[in-house]
Amino acid sequence: MPASNPSALPAEARMLVTRVLACSAEVAEQVLRRGRLRRFPNRATILRQGDWLSLAFLLVLGRAHALLYSADGQVILLHEYRAGDLFGALGELEPVRQECDVLAVEEARALVLEAAELALLAQQHSCIGLALSRMLIRRLRQTTERMYERAALSAVGRVHAELLRQAREAADLTIRPAPILSELALRVATTRETASRAVNALERRGIIRRDADALIVVAPRRLEEMVF
Question: What is the pTM of this model?
Answer without folding.
Answer: 0.84
